[in-house]
Inverse folding.
């Protein structure tokens, strides 16, 4: 049974000192519940493992707003809905889920004196509901798992434990860590108090050393599947650089990689998740070395560095600092571990040094605080705050931060914790971790390169505004419900850190109107922090971190996670009704228009990106704009230092740190990793982790057929024998001509008073193959244009371009004549083209395809008014399932070009290839996610693990991985 400690246990908060918050209505509408403003629809969620064909989840008739993507609704249904599937207690609507959370928070806020009146509590409830249902932010996963359920009300995703140099403490570490994994969270700790294997025990023997005890903890973590199928165990192990066993610690995982190679060569299954991989040790934790300034200066100077006894603090051995630093970098080159944590930088920004030093972090390295503490997280969707003029709405963003930080603090009042020590520390210091997602997409939409001065200035000012507003609200709350219990003894240190944040804000140099407006608000927020904090103190010891936002990023329909750049320029999009399509990122057309490209140029560039996966040599695109479309993976992947510089821009404005891995190509050298670690220290980062592509043998590599080739990245001969480049198969288009005698349909129509005729001819299987258009009372020039247009569409159809591609392109085009029609199914048309292709869709496309395009007949619209569903009831009486899976066939060359809908949202660039092209339909693609799609387009491998739930390739998210198919993660929030 979990050792859960109730929120009402000892360590209760200071009493109420003020009159409560007056809550202003900003987002919601007075007199209208947020739900009533939306259009809701029912969906079926059926999730299948594509490799085995086994249905892993099924729930029908779930309710979501119509603008929520299929991916978001699938992930929320499978991960966050509570109650046994198939029973009456199972949640079936997003309304139930959000109400379960928001009403619990509102009641706790009322009970603990946060609101001035009942009316303020109601406004708070509506505002929080509005922000969640519109995907403006999300709490971390444990909130969705636990709040409002009979389970313990655990709200924290991040934990830091403590272990001392005694067997009782070490065994207690195993137990506490196991309970945290079981609850769906991760934990980290520093093992440096444990005596080294070079020191004596009081009995006269030699100590085992911390590395030996890591084996037991690693085995425990490998056994416990954190949070069931939702996450695997996530943990961080830290050792100080002056510990006598530091070299053994550094090499633990690198040596295990050698073991994996030997076992693989002997015929054992050493794939990630393979039958024999469990024999390898130390694979369930991230390892980090805690380095101090003295060590880093010794590395620079080339001097010796002392390793100290854990008992006496005396130097018992000296090592060459550069040699040890080299070994750290070599190990990271070989297996991505260990990372570095910069101890003096971390503790220089510590608000509670009188209580104790910060010695460790959570598994993803963003939460850094006291031992035996926890942090609950929430992340904002930055793209929601981008205005129509492509500037960032800083005022609205600040208002959202105020609501969210208030809710996060309220949660500590009712939260449960896995141990009494963690509960006491968290209630006494009330650490919060507000952050954001979608930074990469925001910068691209604003026309700013991720690795540019403008991109970094924008990120810095937004981060500064977020943390400044958070501490301002924390100071306001302190005046109402009291400062955190540990504030009095740490008041001067806390205020010193606030001044450091303010000074860092003053050094930011803005480059344009957009970031200048944000910076002005941030400057005012930090001034308010100093003034209000001096009077009231602060409610929270920490306020902000940048988490990986794995599952919750998909919940908010974010294109990018955390502080990350865009993963790739092409993605999969799941369709209502089943199936999927390839799309070009939705922010790209907006960015191109922001940069001044006209619609024809935008369309051509987007088409090029869909085919090639990058922007190099895209038609009309200026080379100086290439950097705006740089991504984490692909041909124009960001340089490693680009990641480091972005982290350095945001770090001075965060209470904690940043979950992020610096990606390097497989060709990167040990010297490059040394430079990244050294520059990260100089730039003021708190932690750095690196990952060299294909450095892990146990990682599934994508070969020609997608299977793990087990290539040894250290052996050139093996690389040549088993290349990691995917073979690109290109299918030439084949024209399918119509028979001499074919079935045709002639339709007369009127659009805005203009008359016309359309004749459409079909193949023997009933699929559309040609059209002819004639407009009444037209001149010879227009008649010729219409004939040429008809011929081009007909040839495209015969070469395999799907009709739905043409429909998505030409519907909603606006020009005269437009207006009322004489067609009962299409009462209004925005142009002749809009009418023609809507009519063709109704005549030749099936219901599921038309539903994805939003085109319905008069009978279907009437059915929706009567039954709430457009879908016709099949003769069997069973509703067709909305299959939430990805199954895209290889596109033909003719069907490869994307289209951009009127209004700016990119329409599908590739949809399912019709059976007319036998070569394409007989050879389905192996791609089931954006990571696999990128591999096929670029011909290079994406080095990520496979999802344990659905079998698809995951993609990086911060310092872990997330599956965009089912939302499973390797440990991120």
């Amino acid at each position: 049974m979990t050792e859960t400690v109730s929120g009402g246990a000892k360590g209760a908060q200071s009493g109420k000192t003020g009159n409560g918050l007056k809550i202003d209505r900003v987002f919601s509408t007075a007199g209208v519940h947020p739900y009533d403003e939306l259009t809701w629809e029912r969906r079926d969620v059926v999730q299948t493992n594509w490799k085995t064909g086994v249905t892993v989840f099924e729930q029908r008739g779930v309710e979501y707003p119509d603008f929520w993507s299929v991916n978001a609704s699938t992930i929320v249904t499978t991960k966050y809905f509570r109650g046994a599937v198939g029973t009456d207690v199972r949640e079936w609507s997003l309304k139930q889920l959000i109400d379960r959370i928001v009403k619990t928070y509102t009641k706790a806020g009322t009970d603990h004196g946060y609101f001035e009146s009942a009316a303020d509590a109601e406004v708070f409830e509506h505002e929080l509901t509005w922000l969640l249902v519109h995907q403006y932010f999300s709490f971390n996963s444990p909130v969705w798992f636990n709040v409002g359920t009979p389970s313990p009300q655990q709200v924290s995703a991040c934990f830091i434990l403590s272990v001392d140099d005694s067997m009782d403490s070490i065994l207690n570490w195993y137990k506490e860590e196991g309970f945290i994994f079981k609850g769906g969270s991760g934990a980290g700790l520093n093992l440096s108090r444990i005596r080294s294997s070079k020191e004596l025990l009081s009995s006269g023997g030699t100590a085992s050393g911390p590395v030996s005890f890591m084996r037991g903890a690693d085995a425990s973590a490998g056994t416990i599947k954190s949070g069931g199928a939702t996450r695997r165990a996530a943990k961080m192990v830290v050792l100080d650089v002056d510990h006598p066993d530091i070299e053994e610690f550094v090499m633990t995982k690198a040596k295990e990689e050698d073991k994996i190679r030997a076992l693989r060569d002997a015929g054992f299954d050493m794939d990630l998740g393979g039958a024999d991989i469990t024999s390898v040790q130390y694979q369930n934790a991230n390892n980090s070395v805690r380095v101090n300034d003295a060590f880093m200066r010794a590395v620079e100077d080339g001097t010796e560095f002392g390793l100290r006894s854990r008992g006496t603090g005396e130097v018992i051995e000296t090592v060459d600092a550069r040699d040890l630093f080299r070994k750290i970098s070599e190990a990271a080159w070989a297996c991505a571990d260990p990372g570095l944590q910069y101890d003096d930088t971390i503790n220089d920004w510590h608000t509670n040094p009188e209580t104790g030093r910060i010695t460790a972090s959570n598994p993803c390295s963003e939460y850094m605080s006291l031992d035996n503490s926890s942090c609950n997280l929430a992340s904002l969707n930055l793209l929601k705050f981008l205005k129509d003029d492509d500037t960032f709405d800083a005022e609205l963003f600040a208002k959202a931060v105020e609501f969210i930080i208030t809710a996060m603090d309220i949660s500590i009042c009712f939260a449960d914790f896995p141990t009494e020590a963690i509960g006491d520390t968290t209630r006494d210091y009330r650490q919060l971790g507000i952050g954001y997602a979608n930074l990469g997409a925001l910068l691209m939409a604003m026309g700013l390169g991720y690795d540019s001065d403008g991109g970094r200035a924008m990120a810095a000012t937004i981060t500064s505004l977020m943390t400044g507003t958070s501490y301002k609200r924390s100071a306001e709350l302190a005046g109402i419900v009291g400062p955190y219990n540990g504030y009095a003894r740490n008041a001067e240190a806390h205020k010193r850190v606030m001044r450091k944040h303010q000074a860092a804000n003053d050094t930011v140099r803005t480059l344009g109107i957009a970031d200048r407006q944000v910076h002005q608000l941030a400057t005012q927020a930090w001034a308010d922090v100093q003034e209000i904090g001096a009077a009231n103190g602060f409610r929270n010891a920490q306020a902000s971190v940048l988490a990986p936002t794995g599952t919750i990023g998909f919940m908010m329909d974010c294109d990018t996670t955390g502080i990350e750049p865009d993963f790739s320029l092409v993605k999969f999009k799941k369709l209502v009704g089943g199936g999927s399509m390839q799309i070009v990122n939705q922010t790209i057309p907006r960015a191109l228009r922001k940069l001044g490209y006209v619609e024809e140029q935008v369309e051509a560039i987007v088409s090029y990106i869909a085919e090639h996966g990058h922007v190099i040599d895209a038609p009309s695109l200026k080379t100086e704009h290439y950097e705006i479309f740089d991504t984490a993976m692909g041909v124009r992947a960001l340089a490693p230092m680009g990641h480091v510089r972005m982290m350095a821009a945001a770090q001075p404005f965060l209470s904690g740190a940043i979950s992020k891995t610096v990606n390097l190509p497989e060709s990167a050298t040990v010297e490059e990793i040394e430079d990244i670690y050294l520059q990260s220290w100089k730039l003021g980062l708190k932690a750095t982790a690196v990952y060299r592509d294909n450095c892990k043998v146990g990682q599934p590599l994508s070969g020609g057929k997608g299977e793990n080739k087990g290539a040894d990245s250290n052996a050139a001969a093996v690389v040549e024998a088993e290349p990691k480049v995917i073979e690109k198969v290109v299918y030439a288009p084949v024209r399918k001509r119509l028979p001499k005698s074919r079935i045709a349909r002639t339709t007369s129509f009127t659009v805005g008073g203009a008359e016309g005729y359309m004749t459409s001819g079909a193949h023997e299987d009933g699929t559309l193959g040609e059209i002819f258009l004639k407009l009444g009372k037209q001149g010879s020039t227009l008649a010729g244009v219409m004939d040429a247009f008809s011929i081009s569409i007909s040839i495209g159809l015969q070469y395999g371009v799907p009709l739905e591609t043409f429909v998505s392109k030409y519907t909603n085009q606006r020009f005269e004549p437009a207006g009322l029609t004489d067609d009962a199914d299409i009462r209004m048309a925005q142009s002749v083209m809009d009418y023609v292709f809507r009519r063709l869709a109704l005549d030749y496309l099936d219901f599921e395809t038309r539903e994805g395009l939003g085109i319905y007949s008069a009978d279907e619209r009437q059915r929706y008014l009567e039954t709430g569903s457009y879908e016709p009831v099949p003769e069997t009486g069973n509703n067709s399932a909305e299959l939430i899976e990805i199954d895209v066939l290889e596109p033909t060359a003719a069907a490869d070009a994307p289209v951009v809908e009127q209004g700016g949202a990119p329409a599908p660039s590739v949809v399912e290839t019709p059976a007319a092209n036998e070569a394409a339909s007989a050879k389905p693609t192996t791609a089931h996610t954006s990571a696999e799609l990128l591999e096929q387009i670029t011909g290079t491998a994406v080095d990520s693990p496979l999802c344990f739930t659905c079998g698809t390739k995951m993609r990086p998210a911060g310092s872990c991985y997330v599956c965009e198919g089912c939302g499973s993660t390797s440990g991120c929030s």
